[in-house]
Amino acid sequence: MQKRTFASLLVIFSVVLILSLVFTACGPGGGGAKKTVKIAWIGPLTGGNAGPGIGGRNSFELAIKEANANPNSKYTYEAVFIDDECKPEVGVQAALKAASDPEVIASVSHYCSMVAISTVDTFHNNGLADIVWGAVLPAITYGNDYKEVFRVNGTMIQQNKVHAEDMVKWGYKTVSIIHDTSDYGRGHMEYFSESAKEVGLQILSVQGVVTDQQDFTTELTKIKAEDPDVIYFGGLAPLGIPLRKQMVKLDIRSQFDGTSGIKNNSFNEALGPDAEGVISYLEGAPLEELPGGMKFKQAYEAAGYKEPPEAYGPFAYVAAQLAIEAIEKVGPDRQKVVDELATTKGKDTIIGEVTFDEYGQNIVPLVTAYVSENGQWVPLSQSSYKEGGTKELPGITFMKEKGRR
Amino acid sequence: MSVLDMIIQQSINGLMLGIMYSLVAVGFTLYFGVLNVINFSHGDFFMLGGFMALILYGIADTLGWTQNVPLLIIYLFLGSMILTALIAIITARICVKPVSKAPMLISLLVTLGLGIAIREAVRVFYPRGSDPKGFPTLLPQGSLSIGNIVIRYENVIIFVLGVLVIVVVNYLITKTKMGMAIRAVAQDGEAAMMMGVDLDRTIDITFLIGAAVAAVAGIMNGFYYGQIMFNMGAMMGVIGFSASVIGGLGNVYGAIVGGILFGLLETFAAATLPMGAENKRVFAFFIVILFLVFKPTGILGEKVYERV
């Protein structure tokens, strides 16, 4: 009797064992439990720049989800989100947190330049790949020879060169500059000033404003007396919005041009009709024109994110993809991943071809001008404001009124 | 534009900025006068007032009540003042009143924390709360030109309303029975209670007035700048507090003097000093330090009233 019970138990055990082996083999993992690899994302999730930050986080997460849904992936990827609040001191803490976790193999980091420049040493000291997804200050990649630092988006050098050249093409001659006093705003001011001088634009004044300033009437009253063709703003949307609003209230009709920092939905939403005709510049080409751009857009919408990806979301997405591909190829080893990323050349992505130079900087040949039209940022070349289009940029109308054109 | 025109135009800018600061400074003066509390959440109630008005405007817009603009403005002001004051009274009962007798450092930390909680709550619970929010344009938008000087109608309304609010607050504090109770508590809470003053009620009323004034300032700020943001109260709180110190902490009219002086200092520093725009606050706060060193009671402190 006891022997029969034992035999029955043995049969049941064997069946369960075989079935479990069969199910494990045929399950979603395909080849047994996959090793989990962590990739960090760092950016602003709170504070005034949380809008583009959340867009970047969602886009990054989308790339992670897609990799996990891919049956061919060798690893299961876990996203680690860390808020840097767009503050350098918080950013360094965030980078340290990511670097001190040995399971984190790469980090897709920073929207704000002043934060990104503060954390390069931390990433370098810890041998952790730092793929910048939004910050545009050139020194982040060009100011050091750290092998760990990469950047998928372009720098403000390219952005401002194209911007100044375009101003001359439009016939503008004089510019008044307002910039925020962060590394981001000051950097834009410096590179724009250099490019403006090269192309023969006259800079009437340069005024720096602190990043939490709300009242610009004093600065704008000075600018009104200068009567420039263009007001160039080097800063982010939380400052750009009240600046533009007060410019309208003070009846200053010069052209208002901004940097990539104002190209987000909140700028158009908060300003309504006052945003009409404002120009901003962004590296890369419009999403719709790039291979896979529409696919990203559809996937993002299908994922059910409430917030838009914003201007730099696609860059965060590509940065995550590059990190994942490197890990897939060389395994979850920080040093090997850094070395693998450095070899990236002519890689087709939704932001165009990605090639890292010896500084880890993606050489982006393309910069696109956008104009705010009917509450949307539209590539200038596709808008009604393009040369020969049905609408006229406010700055052109203003110059005609003044008899300067 | 001549130099004189520029000075006048910048003075107008400074006065407008100053009246905003004054309205926030009045609240600090009130809280300090009654509770001996430096309420650092006050700047965030200023922000909350603006957001309450935006929510009320959204409701009115949905219901189609936006046709009658004067009525709409009154509805926004009253509604926002009541809601902001209610929240202020509730939060004061929970976390400010229990520490009002503790050392000032404790209440300062508590109110600082409360301010951060309010700020982050707006950011989290308001739809896409971290983005700047456009504020409805309801005041007349034209302007009056005298030579090269431009005075916007909107600015005149905001300035007059700001001064009016401060005068009314002063009247409430100095001429009414309620104000007498507040001043009695300010001088000696225990003695006031022995004379039949309801301490809890008096503190509630102080928070009601303080938060309602902050709400008015928040709405006026929205009308003036055309946008509000969840973190706009942080720096406003620091400047409002500094303005109340310059004017004389505890003196309502000192708040006006301090606020306008701070506004003018910032404006003229930005307009005249080299690299003034980026260093105007450094300059203005340097003056605050000078006041704290050489005249810690402020310009009107203890000369006109002892406290409130």
Summarize the structure.
Chain A is α/β, with parallel strands linked by helices.
Question: What does this 3D model show about the protein?
Answer:
- The complex is a heterodimer of chains A (about 400) and B (about 300).
- Chain A is of the alpha/beta class.
- Helix content of chain A is about 45%, strand content about 20%.
- Chain A contains 14 helices and 14 strands.
- In chain A, strands 7-6-8-9-10-13-14 form a seven-stranded mixed sheet. Chain A has a five-stranded parallel sheet with strand order 2-1-3-4-5. In chain A, strands 11-12 form a two-stranded antiparallel ribbon.
- In chain A, strand 9, helix 10 and strand 10 form a beta-alpha-beta unit.
- The longest helix of chain A is centred in the first third of the chain and has 25 residues, at about 1-25.
- Chain A is elongated and about 95 Å long.
- Chain B has one domain (about 5-165, about 200-295): ABC transporter involved in vitamin B12 uptake, BtuC, CATH 1.10.3470.
- The longest helix of chain B is centred in the N-terminal third of the chain and has 33 residues, at about 5-35.
- The interface between A and B is large, with 40 and 39 residues.
Topology overview:
The complex is a heterodimer of chains A (405) and B (308).
Chain A: H1 2-26, E1 35-43, H2 50-69, E2 75-83, H3 88-99, E3 104-109, H4 113-125, E4 129-132, H5 139-142, E5 149-151, H6 156-169, E6 174-180, H7 183-199, E7 202-209, H8 217-226, E8 230-234, H9 237-249, E9 255-258, H10 265-271, E10 279-283, H11 293-302, H12 313-330, H13 334-342, E11 347-349, E12 352-354, E13 367-373, E14 376-379, H14 394-401
Chain B: H1 3-35, H2 42-63, H3 69-96, H4 104-125, E1 133-134, E2 143-146, E3 149-152, H5 153-175, H6 177-187, H7 189-194, H8 199-225, E4 227-228, H9 232-247, H10 252-272, H11 276-294
Antiparallel strand pairs in B: 1-4, 2-3
Helix pairs in contact in B: 1-5, 1-8, 1-9, 1-10, 2-3, 2-4, 2-8, 2-9, 3-8, 5-6, 5-8, 6-8, 9-10, 9-11, 10-11
